[in-house]
Structure formats: C-alpha cells, structure tokens
C-alpha cells in the first residue's frame, strides 16, 4: 500500500510540474526503432524526444528506452522504488504501471508531447547528455540521456 501511495504521489508531482506542456506547438518524435546508439548530441535529442513522446502516449515500447535502476522523475527516485521490486514479474508490472499512469495523468492535464518546442542539447559528454525543450509556460523540461550497456537511455526527467 505504501509503495502504491508513493507511486501515486510521484505521478501527481510529475503532472503538476509538466502541465506547462498543454497545447500543440511542435512535432512529435518518430518511433523508438529509429533511435540508434550512436553517441552524438543530435542522436541524444532524438532519444530524449522519442522516449518522452512514447511515455506521454503510454506506449510500452518506451520501457526499453528508460534506465530504470537510475530513473529520476521531478526529484522522485523512481529507480530506487524499481530496484526494490523482488522479482522480474513485479519489475515488469512496475514498468507497465508507471508508463500507463504517467501517460494517463499527463493526458488528463490536457498536455501533449507535441507542445514542447526547441529541443536541444544543454550539455553533452560521451557518458551523458542533458536535452532540454521549452514548454508553453516558458519553463524548460530537462531529460538526461546516458549510456546503459551500450545503449542510450533516459535516466532523468526534470524541470
């Protein structure tokens, strides 16, 4: 029960912080399969944009684009909650539940991934990039892209 409450609280925090993305003003990213593990700033923008779009749309394919063990969302340590799951079946349920709940909360706010604009690199190294995008409320969404077992994955979403 405590884990469900923490997870629910996490989704509401995410919703409140990201609700500045509520009207269309950009384009959506392509499918996850178009993302390659090349370490370049342009590729990391594609990874971040694609992963965030899939997450907002509730597409379970995004699960492979998230570094679950280290995942941080708006100051919440999702990775620690995930790592405490005792087995693969519960970890899969956690991933599915997180993606569905994130999407549902985001959509209920009237927000869309397409309302983010000016996707760009804030910082870039071979190990990590911080990709940012502007929201309609003149705030900046930040997505960290890292190397996980030779693949680029998102490890944090913040504002």
Question: What can you see in these coordinates?
Answer:
This protein is an alpha+beta fold and 159 residues long. It has a single domain, classed as Nuclear Transport Factor 2, Chain: A (Roll). Helix content is 38%, strand content 23%. It has helices at 2-18, 41-56, 78-83, 88-108, and strands spanning 72-73, 76-77, 117-124, 128-134, 140-148, 151-158. Strands 2-1-6-5-4-3 form a six-stranded mixed beta sheet. Strand 1 (72-73) and strand 2 (76-77) form a beta hairpin. Helix 1 packs parallel to helix 4 (88-108). The longest helix has 21 residues, at 88-108. The two termini are 28 Å apart. The model is unreliable at 4-37 (pLDDT under 50).
In whole angstroms, how far apart are the ends?
28 Å
Q: Taking strands numbered 1, 2, ... along the chain, how are they ordered across the largest sheet?
A: 2-1-6-5-4-3
Order of helices and strands: HHEEHHEEEE
Helix-and-strand structural type: alpha+beta
- Quickly count the helices: 4
CATH topology category name: Nuclear Transport Factor 2, Chain: A
Low-confidence sequence ranges? 4-37
- Portion of residues in helices? 25-40%
Average pLDDT, to the nearest integer? 82
- The count of domains is 1
| CATH class categorisation | Alpha Beta
Largest sheet data? 6 strands, mixed
* CATH architecture classification name: Roll
Radius of gyration: 15 Å
Percent strand equals: 15-25%
Secondary structure: number of strands: 6
Shape: globular
């Amino acid at each position: 029960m405590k884990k469900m409450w923490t997870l629910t609280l996490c989704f509401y925090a995410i919703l409140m912080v990201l609700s500045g993305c509520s009207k269309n003003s950009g384009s959506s990213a392509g499918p996850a399969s178009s993302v390659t593990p090349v370490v370049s700033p342009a590729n990391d923008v594609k990874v971040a944009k694609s992963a965030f779009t899939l997450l907002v749309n509730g597409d379970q394919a995004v699960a492979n684009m998230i570094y679950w063990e280290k995942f941080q969302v708006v100051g919440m340590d999702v990775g620690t909650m995930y790592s405490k799951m005792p087995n693969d079946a519960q970890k899969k349920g956690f991933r599915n539940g997180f993606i569905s709940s994130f999407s549902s909360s985001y959509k209920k706010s009237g927000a869309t991934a397409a309302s983010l604009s000016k996707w760009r690199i804030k910082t870039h190294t071979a190990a990590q990039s911080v990709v940012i995008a502007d929201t309609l409320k003149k705030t900046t969404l930040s997505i960290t892209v890292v190397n996980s077992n030779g693949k680029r994955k998102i490890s944090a979403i913040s504002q």
